[in-house]
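[job 0412] stage=fold_complex status=start
inputs:
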Amino acid sequence: MFAQFPQQVWVNEVVTRDGFQSEPEFVPTETKIELINKLARLGLNKIEVTSFVSPRAIPNLRDAEEVMRSITRDTDTRYVALVPNEKGCARALELAVDEINLVMSVSQSHNLANMRMTCEQSLQQFTRIAEMTAGTAMRLNGSLATAFGCPFEGSQAQERILHFIDAYLERGLHSITLADTTGMAVPNQVHDLCQAVRERWPELEVTMHFHNTRGLGLSNVLAALAAGMNQYDASLGGLGGCPFAPGATGNICTEDLVHMLHEMGLSTGVNLDGLLAQSSALAFIVGRDLPGQVGKAGPRTLTRPLPESVKQLMQQHGQN
Amino acid sequence: MFAQFPQQVWVNEVVTRDGFQSEPEFVPTETKIELINKLARLGLNKIEVTSFVSPRAIPNLRDAEEVMRSITRDTDTRYVALVPNEKGCARALELAVDEINLVMSVSQSHNLANMRMTCEQSLQQFTRIAEMTAGTAMRLNGSLATAFGCPFEGSQAQERILHFIDAYLERGLHSITLADTTGMAVPNQVHDLCQAVRERWPELEVTMHFHNTRGLGLSNVLAALAAGMNQYDASLGGLGGCPFAPGATGNICTEDLVHMLHEMGLSTGVNLDGLLAQSSALAFIVGRDLPGQVGKAGPRTLTRPLPESVKQLMQQHGQN
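[job 0412] stage=fold_complex status=done
writing structure:
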């Protein structure tokens, strides 16, 4: 099981997009910029900064341009924006975003609910976006939402998922994300799908996007690691979820993920102590306790001093 | 990874002991009895009912005798009591408890903090308890607390753990529990220890006891399953933790565990819908929201009706 684990794992931080988009209050632009700059300095080599959507659709991200323009672009970090259509793509191109993330749901009904388009229409749009970006340095990532289950339709056929990956790659997309939009994935299902994808496309860059809705976020990471997957989306403090997916809450928490990976001996290049400090700051920003657990309990390596009474008992029993 | 999974998994419910012992308010005796009877009827074949401790040490379990005497003893369920000493053992014998659970920490300092005894003294006591119970039908389970790390001393040597299992078995204990008392276990460590135990004692009955303190409870179950372990402690709603272990919170949640196991195709014999109903009732009993997540999100198989607007879009696009 552990023999197949990749030794180096990449973490893609999504808090300023997936986390902030559904907050009840607008997070100030300056706060977003500062957080993104700090996260890049902590070693997160990919950050989903914002979304170039209509400010009417997601008012919380109405400052997308200003945020993208004002952050300090670390050369070791890939800065990503979610883009729902050609207009969003044009905005991303103007700001020379490193990568855009295109999203379609595997399930027809969820894509209609989320994007107001059929899957076929989404793919046609991706074709046009690929044409718009041809010859630029901007990379295209394609996300497959509801890949592990749709809240309306339930499980999705593996064939359908593989077919859509094909469709993405035919259109020139560079990488894909398999997203468990509403937290329906279970470990053996994750392992099966990851293995099928790896067998067919051994070199494809694949990111896994899990939610902890039913408590299985990190278990699903474990299953994906066992299938050799080495890129994971996560959100600082576990903030976020999809505002259009009923009952969907809780991206997996970045610091809990990094803690697990490090304690299993895998490298991420991310500074865990720094993340924990930023997670505390984030709880203050959003004004509430966050789902992340390592922030509350501390890393497992953080032992506590012996209570005085136990010290005395140790001495009585000749134990030091 | 999944090929090694046992097809049948046994769940040991600990909520009325591990959960209720650290509640701020005393849970009424009648409520405890009713809950235990309901849990047995839901297919939980092992229930840790209470603890025969001093009522001064744990006032919440001062009704241990009355609870044990008044429950309806289902013949398919094994009723267990935690016992800290000979006096507790005598009380358990009087009530013909099916099994007693003896606890010692692997770490010397934690055993002194928790039991006010050295490990050697604990083992001597287990010898006397084994003598007291010889020839009775009462089974003896020995728990090894802090098996995956001590909050004072950190990691514990695997040799020390194996040595103590030997010591338990020499004294005639019938089964063991490997307990992650303060939620320090990580999956590869769990897998290593379980494999070492299984190799040396292929037939030994071993229960895994995990806490979700750092978000890794179900991931650790997955790792233990991959090593063939088929018995798990869990607490309804995720209630509980060790009152003597600093920062220790959150047994893994029974309904989240059962949900994961069933969705991976493993059998538990437990009625998940019934558990979810009891978990809701439990939140009402303790007067607060519980950590369990499937209770909030619903099982992954519970799909939602299509919103009217999406139905209309489906029709427009000729999709049914």
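[job 0412] summary: The first helix of chain A runs from residue 15 to 19.
[job 0412] exit 0
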